[in-house]
Amino acid sequence: MTTVAGTREEEARKLQITGGSTYIISLPRKWVIRNQLRKGSSLILREEADGSLSLVPSGCAKQEKKEDAFIRVSRKDESNAIVRKAVSAYLVGYSMIHVRAESQQQLSSQQRNALKEFARRFLVGTEIVIDTPGELTLQILLNYPELTVESALRRMSIITSSMHRDAMTSFRELDHQLARSVVDTDTEVDRFNLYIIRQLKLAISNPRIIKEIGLSNARDCLGYRLITKSVERTADHAVSIAENVLLLKKRIYEEALRKIEDMSKIAVSMFDDAIDSLFKRDFNQAETVIEKARDVAKLEAEAIACSEEGGIGENASLRLLIESIRRTAEYASDIAEIVLNLNVESVLE
């Protein structure tokens, strides 16, 4: 067996045949001893995405899944701090999260209610299975094939695009009720965001999960993580548009409105096309999205100039609203650039 500094141990072994049709290969003695294997021990053989084979002792395979996380809580602990710990346990892949009071005390009603409310609103596939004064236990029931990363990102993107359009409708019609609805909808985006991060973290720590969550390789995991972040930030800017609409007391005049709406139409179409290029793995479509960024920059300058020339009041809210539309276009361009990186082989000789 040869060892190179900084690398794993490697050893060449010849494939043999027995019984005329069965191929066999011997296992390294040190590896067998280290894993406490003996004659009759079960091994799991998996074919990886690159065509290689991995050999795992069955006991180790069972341990790959994180089961129980225990969070000890005192009465002095802030509710937000407890929620953050639970979220961290959710994201790294634990399937059971036990929040227990220290020293036979009880969780305060504020602590319990904050955690229950957050779990119900933000943690996909989570059920409260124990709810007593001394313990609150969350169980994550959703399995990988039930909601792949791609499916979750599709839903997240559709909601985000709809939020932007509704925010602009509320701006055009000065509809404060619709604007508030956009703000509330952001919870759905955050739910999918946390779920996707959880799945990608599990895949990075255990590459065998990559196919189960609907991706092809480890590079996809990094790309989807960056894209998910851009989608989440795009939704935040839809919320920002809606929040600035809530600050407006009267409609702006038609020419300025038209400039801002034209800018918005290009920005949201860029976002939709960027996401579409991701799922289609379309390099050229992603390239087209990036080229549209210049149009948004031009329209932004025109919209700002138009609002200033018109002497429109509440300019601060309008400037922030226009900035959020520009940021939507920039995040769409960021997504498209990642799509280029993921699919560059399709345009190489």
Ordered list of secondary-structure elements with their pairings:
Blueprint: E1 16-18, E2 22-24, H1 29-34, E3 43-47, E4 53-57, H2 58-63, E5 68-73, H3 79-91, E6 96-101, H4 109-122, E7 126-132, E8 135-140, H5 149-173, H6 176-205, H7 218-247, H8 254-280, H9 283-291, H10 293-309, H11 315-342
CATH class category of the largest domain: Mainly Alpha
Secondary-structure element series? EEHEEHEHEHEEHHHHHHH
Query: What is the average of the pLDDT values?
Result: 87
* Parts with pLDDT < 50 across at least 5 consecutive residues: 1-7
CATH fold-level name of the largest domain: Methane Monooxygenase Hydroxylase, Chain G, domain 1
What report would you give on this structure?
With about 350 residues, this protein is α+β, with helices and mostly antiparallel strands. It has 3 domains: about 15-65, no CATH class; about 70-140, Translation initiation factor 3 (IF-3), C-terminal domain (Translation Initiation Factor IF3); about 145-345, Phosphate transport system protein phou homolog 2, domain 2 (Methane Monooxygenase Hydroxylase, Chain G, domain 1, Up-down Bundle). Helices cover about 60% and strands about 10% of the residues. It contains 11 helices and 8 strands. It has helices at about 30-35, 60-65, 80-90, 110-120, 150-175, 175-205, 220-245, 255-280, 285-290, 295-310, 315-340; strands at about 15-20, 20-25, 45, 55, 70-75, 95-100, 125-130, 135-140. The radius of gyration is 26 Å and the shape is flat. Residues about 1-5 have low confidence and may be disordered.
